[in-house]
Amino acid sequence: MKEVIPMATVSFDKNIVVKEPEAIERLVEVLSSSKEAKPINRKLASDEAMARGEKLLKQCLSHSKRF
Prior knowledge:
The protein is α+β, with helices and mostly antiparallel strands. It is 46% helix and 18% strand. It contains two helices and two strands. A hairpin with a 4-residue loop joins strand 1 and strand 2. It is elongated and about 50 Å long.
C-alpha cells in the first residue's frame, strides 16, 4: 500500500511517500488530533521585544551588506 501526501511549504512542494500501514495510521492520527493551543508569551511579543528584534535585524543586515 502506497500513499502520497503532498506537503506544501513556503519555499517548495514535496511529495512524501508513506509505505508502512502503521506509519499511515499514525500520520492520520496525528493530523486528525486536536491539540490545545499553547498560550502566547506576551512578554516575547511585546512592543519593546518587537522593537529590539527589528533593531537587531537591521544590525545584522547592515553587517551582511559589507561582505
